[in-house]
Amino acid sequence: MKFAQRMSEIGTETAFEVLARARKLEAQGRNIVHLEIGEPDFPTPPNIVEAAEKAVRDGYTHYTPAGGLMPARQAVADWIRRWYEVDVKPEQVVMVPGSKNVLLFTMLALVERGVEVIVPDPGYPIYASLVTLAGGTPVPIALRERNDFRLDIDELKRKITPRTRLIVINSPQNPTGGVLTTRDLEQIAELAHKHDLYILSDEVYGQITYDGTHASILTMPGMVDRVIYSDGLSKAYAMCGWRLGFAVAPLEIAQRFETLMINTSSCAAAFTQMAAIEALSSPESDRAVEAMVGEFKRRRDVVVDRLNALPGVTCHRPLGAFYVFPNITGTGLDQKELADRLLYDGGVALLAGTAFGDEGKGYLRLSYANSVEQIEEGVHRMKGVLEKTAARA
After folding, report:
1. In what order do the strands lie in the sheet with 351-352?
2. Could you tell me what percentage of the chain is helix, strand and coil, using 3-state DSSP and rounding each to the nearest 5?
3. What is the pLDDT of residue 9?
4. How confident is the model over 198-221, as a mean pLDDT?
5. For the chain, what is the largest distance between any 2 Cα atoms, rounded to a whole number of angstroms?
6. Whole-structure pTM over 0.90, yes or no?
7. Which of 141, 211, 223, 391 is the most exposed place for a label (fewest CB within 10 A)?
8. Distance (Å, rounded) from C-alpha 52 to C-alpha 278?
9. What three-state secondary structure class fits 228?
10. What is the mean pLDDT of the chain?
11. Do 238 and 40 form a contact (C-beta atoms < 8 A)?
12. For residue 117, what are the β-bridge partners?
């Protein structure tokens, strides 16, 4: 068959590919520890489920306006005001079926041939893939362990050219768990003003932070007019399968997003938008998020301590999200080869660091969105594979 050239140029999300391989092994009778997929293992809080059920019974089963139901958009605006002390209008909010749509719509609205977009490396691979899909050129900026997996501002300055239109930031970050500081964000904002740039700020892990408070570039002076804020309910509220995200953007960009919604999904599901009102405004939801983050912190400490005890492995302690990015250069093994051995020989599904860019060389990514028992079993199996490999060497 003849396909469009773009199909050979865009990338993929390796987590889903590894999950499919792991499921195939399970179908053959293998026991697999899943540390590959970034999905909370918690149930959606009952009050949110009940709100969705009520919405269905009340008739919220039809089309909504492309940008979303106004009460849901207002709930997001109110939540932004409470969380960040930033005033945005509900018309600046667009409800979308999964926050990936915010990433896609940003690229389609702002990027074209000849435009450069600075993206984190290692970083969520869909950023670069969608820049390419829109006809632009992704320009990677390294996130290094020695800098707590934060981007280097001086290096960022060197990456900016007259062709740069957009900088993508993600904090807390996938795959490293790195968190940008307030000073980092201030300097990025200064560069955006100086060079007339937009910032796509992916903050889907914003509520999942440890040992400190998450800061948003949306709060920097004048940045409400330059930031496309991407968020959703998947991570903080354990609602991955509900497929509901939202953008907060300058009004003219939000209006373009509505046009893109009309041309793609028409609207996000009505009853999920009603559930979002409950998620974002209920103290019961806040308590559920707080309990989940407390458990994630416990798991983080377990997995970091266990990984640091493995031969040839060192693991930075992340400040947010639910991923660790251990350095495996001391094992002498290639990250892709080791990830494959761990899956097929050890029954542990995880990702090679290079699934997130060239700067992931020498690293693996593990998700600790699984029970402590499964995390400990997974690291135990990793130890067995590493010991066997060393013995054969």
Report:
1. 323-324, 364-367, 351-352
2. 50, 15, 35
3. 87
4. 94
5. 65
6. yes
7. 391
8. 9
9. strand
10. 96
11. yes
12. 138, 166
| Rounded (5°) CA angle 315-320-323 | 50
Place of tokens 């496309």: 228
Closest to 89 (Cα-Cα) out of 206, 255, 203, 238: 255
Q: Residue 195 is encoded by which pair of tokens? A: 């060079």
Residue given tokens 């396909």 in the structure block: 3
CB 348 within 8 A of CB 33: yes
Residue 54 token pair:
């009520």
| CA quadruple 343, 349, 353, 354: dihedral, nearest 10 | 60
Q: What is the pLDDT of residues 5-59, one digit of tens each?
A: 889 888 888 888 999 999 999 999 999 999 999 999 999 999 999 999 999 999 9
Cis upstream peptide for 65 (omega within 30°): no
Measured N-to-C along each axis, helices 372-392 and 335-344 cross at an angle, to the nearest 10 degrees, of 110
Structure token pair of residue 209: 């932070």
Encode pLDDT of 318-373 as tens digits: 999 999 999 999 999 999 999 999 999 999 999 999 999 999 999 999 999 999 99
Domains of the chain (ranges; CATH) run: 5-43+286-392 (3.90.1150.10), 47-281 (3.40.640.10)
- Per-residue pLDDT tens digits for 235-259: 999 999 999 999 999 999 999 999 9
- How many CB atoms sit inside 10 A of residue 286's CB? 16
Question: Residue 9 corresponds to which tokens in the numbers above?
Answer: 């140029």
> What type of residue sits at position 23?
R
